[in-house]
Amino acid sequence: MALALRRHLRSPLDPDPGATIARAMRNRNPNFLTLVRPVFADSAHPYAQLFKIAGCAYADLESEVNRNGLETTLRALSNEGVYLTHDEFRGRKEIVRAGRHIPASIASWDNPAVRGEFETVSSGTSGRPVSTMSSQALLAHAECGTRLFLHELGVGQGSSVSVAPILPGFGLFSGLLASRLIGGFDRWYALSAASAANLHYRIVTRALVANLRLFGAKIPYPTYLDHNDFRPVAEYLAMRRAAGVNIGVSGFVSSISRVAAAALDHNLDISGCLGVVAGEALTDAKRTVIEAAGIRVYPTYGATDFGSIGMPCREMDTGNCVHVLQQNCALISKRREGIGDRPVESLYLTGILPFASRILVNAEIGDTGVIEPATCDCSFSRLGLNLQVRDIAAISKVTAQGMTIAADELVQVLEEALPARFGGRPGDYQLLEVEAEAQTEMVLRIRPGVTEHPAQEILNHFLGETRRLYGGSMSVLSWLHSDGIRAEVAPPVLAGTGKFRAVRLLGPGITGKNAASRAANF
Predict the structure, then answer these.
(1) Rounded mean pLDDT of 474-502?
(2) pLDDT at 341
(3) What is the reported pLDDT for 186?
(4) Count of domains for the chain
(5) CA separation (Å) from 522 to 246, 262, 265, 291, 297?
(6) Contact by Cβ (8 Å): 380, 148
(7) Fewer CB atoms near the end CB (10 Å): N or C, the chain?
(8) Is residue 54 included in any domain, yes or no?
(9) Where in the sequence is the domain holding 485, given as residue range(s)?
(10) CATH number of the domain where residue 466 is located
(11) Is residue 498 part of a domain?
């Protein structure tokens, strides 16, 4: 990876990113067909079997795409069984269509035509590791979309701060991107790193930063934040604003919300800052706190497994909305039962680029959102990116603090591990993801009378079990760093129908008592 990062650092920037995106938009259909054609030549490939069950040969697919368009064809294929649920994509559930069992693993979706050089892990450091290998061509293409976004918001060479995790998180790659596009970050504030559990990652991160700095990258070494203390970030932003410097700040939604809350709590003036957030839903409560501190905030949308999915334009300054990056992917939705009280529109992604890391056709992302035409007059729309997705939120995974854990794996901890250790039955322990005062938080609820063990002891055991899951180690470190998890003895939260769910993603449905009043007071 060190050699690959060095090569990418030295590679030239695309001289005309707008033209590259426009060309990719014109070639969406042939690019998609080029990507999926090898699947039909391998009868054992899971997608080849799905297409066969649907009665779709390659010639049929080519004809339908050219006649009816990509999204229309994908919706028709989905209705005929050509899709992957999030659990099927991850290899946690067997694919069964028309009574046929189709063996597959996450490695089945790798693109054999691509040699990956950059390895990323979405959020896990233990359990079953699932990595994504990306090529330099993919990174260079992704830079084009980021440059269009920066141009749209009027961001050039300037001052910026990152609040992001060290390896295996995305902070190092963000630093490399910033070095190439905006002259680098002033500071990199790292979360959840002061722990012996990830000392090895601190060492490797520092070594790779040193390697890149040696070859000219403007990447700062991480500055580790103390437990639950985001004030240093707010103080630096305030200092730069007092000097008349326009400065930006990027990171997970909850992290930037906590920075804003620290500024409000300590009367630090950071008004005029630009915030770019990712990793979890930008809810109304978090937007309220961030904007109360004077930060103009814009969400981006992507995932390690699926790449960059959406970017906002300057007009998308309310809610949680982005342009679909149609040069990279096609997005459709299907109605399904959510973890909350109501049915949701689950998002399914199809890759388009021939140099994509994976071959994905109608793969469920694990998020909900509303896809609709984009009516804004912006750089994205003028290049033909005329779809947007709004109200994005997780439906099959916990994403508090920007880290991801599959909900069904947490259910096993709640319904099996905790009753076995402390007593009780399934239904006596529940995990809530809620909107607190300035961040998303996790609440472990214990039904009254189930056990005599202290709530803190149960929480500690829950955290220990969660660390074993894919995504669990980094999630636990992040939750503990920001005081983002607690336990309470209280009845479970039930759906309107009385249905119990072991994991409840309440989002803005339950908010901290002072979230709105806090912003109103400043």
Answers:
(1) 79
(2) 54
(3) 97
(4) 1
(5) 22, 12, 9, 11, 18
(6) yes
(7) C
(8) no
(9) 402-520
(10) 3.30.300
(11) yes
pLDDT tens readout for residues 426-481: 778 999 988 777 788 889 999 899 999 999 999 999 999 998 887 788 788 888 88
Of 314, 498, 266, 353, whose CA–CA distance to 35 is shortest?
A: 353
Q: Which residues pair with 258 in a beta bridge?
A: none
* Confidence (pLDDT) at 515: 33
Tokens of 471: 């995504």
Backbone angles phi, psi at 61, to 5 degrees: -60, -45
Handedness of CA 363, 369, 372, 378 (dihedral sign): negative
Could you tell me if residue 510 is inside a domain? yes
**Cβ-count burial 20-57 (b if 16+ within 10 Å, e if not):** bbbebbebbeebbbebbeebbeeeebbbbbbbebbebe
Q: Widest CA span of the chain, in angstroms?
A: 67
Q: Is the peptide bond before 168 cis (omega within 30 degrees of 0)?
A: yes
Tokens 């240093």 correspond to what residue?
A: 232
The answer to whether the CB of 435 falls within 8 A of the CB of 515 is yes
How far apart CA 225 and CA 191 sit, in angstroms, is 6
Over the Cα atoms of the chain, what is R_g? 23
pLDDT tens-place string over residues 220-269: 999 999 877 899 999 999 999 999 999 999 998 888 988 998 999 999 99
155 pLDDT higher than 50:
yes
pLDDT at position 178, please?
95
Cis peptide before 312 (omega within 30 of 0): no
Backbone φ and ψ for 112, nearest 5 degrees, come out as -70, -15
Beta partners for 332? 348
What is the rounded distance in angstroms from the CA atom of residue 348 to the CA atom of residue 336? 12
Residue 107 lies in a domain: no
Mean pLDDT (the chain, rounded)? 87
312-341 pLDDT, tens digit per residue, is: 999 999 989 999 999 999 999 999 876 555
* Token pair 């997705």: residue: 389
pLDDT for position 342? 66
User: Residue 114 class from Cβ within 10 Å (0-12 exposed, 13-18 middle, 19+ buried)?
Assistant: buried
Determine contact, residues 398/501, Cβ cutoff 8 Å. Answer: no
Structure tokens belonging to residue 236: 């630096």
Residue 369 confidence (pLDDT) above 60: yes
CA contacts within 13 A on the Cβ side of 501: 19
